[in-house]
Amino acid sequence: MQKDRFKQAEFAAMVGVFGNIVLAILKGAVGVISESRALVADAIHSASDVAGSLAVFIGVRAAKQPPDEDHPYGHGKAESIAAIIVAVLLFLVGIEIGKSSFESFFEDIEAPKLLAIYAVIISIIVKEWMFQYKYRLGKKIKSDAIIANAYEHRSDVYSSIAALVGIGAAIIGQRMGINWLVYADPVAGLFVSILVIKMAWRLGSESIHATLDHVLHEEDIVGLKATVNKIYEIKKIDELHAREHGHYVIIDIKVSVDPHITVEEGHNIGKLVKEKLMSEHEHVQNVFVHINPYSP
Prior knowledge:
The chain has helices spanning 2-34, 37-63, 77-103, 115-141, 144-175, 184-211, 222-229, 263-280; strands at 236-245, 248-257, 284-293. 43% of the residues are buried. The two termini are 42 Å apart. The chain has a three-stranded mixed beta sheet with strand order 1-2-3, covered by helices on one side. It folds into two domains: 2-211, Cation efflux protein transmembrane domain (Alpha-lytic protease prodomain-like), CATH 1.20.1510; 218-293, Alpha-Beta Plaits (2-Layer Sandwich), CATH 3.30.70.1350. By secondary structure, it is mainly alpha-helical. Helix 8 (263-280) links the parallel strand 2 and strand 3 (284-293).
């Protein structure tokens, strides 16, 4: 199951790499030919997505490494770190797009050529498909990095829609003699930059939250507690913390048992708790059990 999960995640990351390379080249070339600031900005956005998808690929590869002496809890957080890298890249790209678009207001510009419209429409269709594919996969395999990468594609959809509106308005303005509408193209570029920065901030904050030893909320551990409570020897669950490590969780649990049993019997109960949690909940990778004497 785990092997198949990583295989799907790696494939999805490479789909993003090659898809973004093709789109960046297409939009960049058409943007230059058609003289569209918004489309060139959109191409830069797609180019940044290449780096983002590569970061996700590397993060997924690192996350699948088994626990070792230096990392006894495994490498699952590598995916969250990859998601943070993606967010930082998105933020920097948003700043650069905004700066480039703002500078256009102080230059004489021409409306883009019609060819730019076709390139943007192709980009919207491809990017929306990539978002849907990666978002559903990320939810299915519980991968922060793949979900972050999916939202990268969704931000590209938004930026392409903004570019489409800007390019279309600029072309219509020039043909109808409404000169100020020519600047709708860089206005679209500014709008794109705001969308990208906002999305980067949200993804970054969520990924940092997951990296800082976030534990599952009470409503998320109901099933875990139910599994433990079914064990006859357990008198009471004193404490249960399920720490998220990327796609899996590590559980620290304290349980109370009959104070008159032997140390070996207590040890066997602890082993049973661990086995039950790991066998009945596939996202549980390890369990650390502390045995307390029960006192009413």
